[in-house]
Amino acid sequence: MKRLIVNGDDFGFSREVNAGIIRAHREGILTSTSLMVADAARDEAAALAKENPALDVGLHLVVCMGRSVLPPAEIAPVVDALGRFSNNPVLSGLRYFFTPGIRAKLVAECRAQIELHLKLIGYLNHIDGHLNFHVHPALADIVVELAQEYKVPCIRLPAEPLFTTLAISRDRLAGKLMEAIIFRALSRRTRRMAAERGIKSTDMLFGLYQTHRITEDYVVAVMHRIPDGLAEIYFHPAMDIGGTPPAPSSQLETEVLTSARVREAIASRGIQLTTFGAIARAER
Question: Do the Cβ atoms of 85 and 78 come closer than 8 Å?
Answer without folding.
Answer: yes
